[in-house]
Amino acid sequence: MKQTLKSTLLLLAVLLLGGLLPARAQVGEARSDLAIGVNGGINLSSVTFNPTIKTTNLMGMCGGLTIRYTCEKYFTAICALQMEINYAQRGWKEDIEDGSGNTYQRTTNYLEVPFMFNMGWGREQRGVKFFINAGPQMNFFLSEKEEYGGGTWDTSNRPNNVVEQYGKDTENSFDYGICGGGGIDWSTKVGHFVLEGRYYYGLGDIFKNTKKDYFGRSGNSSITVKLSYLFDIIKTK
Q1: For the chain, which terminus, N or C, has the lower number of CB atoms within 10 Å?
Q2: What does pLDDT average to over the chain?
């Protein structure tokens, strides 16, 4: 499955480059609309481990800059390329049920850069448009914080005896994966107000995963809900 996801990521990257071809190579109605703005919201993040650790979602903040270039209207679909540069809090919270009363969570901070195809249906200006988007995403590790709680720290009865994660620094500073989602774009005379839900699946690992390393898998994933405001820099229609 991991190999299939890597192939999907490569295909999305190739298609993204293809989307940058000049408008004259397109078969639809050309557009050259450029909008920029800001976005902000929350992440519900977790990490998938092998050996297994039982985790729950960790809530964190996210926000940054959005750039959207609308390049074509193909029949009823409005096609665009979208790039973001965001600060995002990820990580995980452990669901500890061994009777110790301990709690643990780790917040990891990233600079994330998604490149997405954006396809919408509805009003280009002065109205509502529904859209979906998908594409590859790169993440650059910035910092992290561990939080231990619940009195005396006791790991003697952890499920599967997995305790290697405690105090272990993030080892891979580069993370990558695929993201996708959808939402509503409300266009007004003062700009675009965008409400979106998005899912990210990490293909990389936060810890090293060679044969000599403890974890074979330690991949990020997250559900994001965010609100964006974009204003038009170039508008051709």
Answers
A1: N
A2: 89
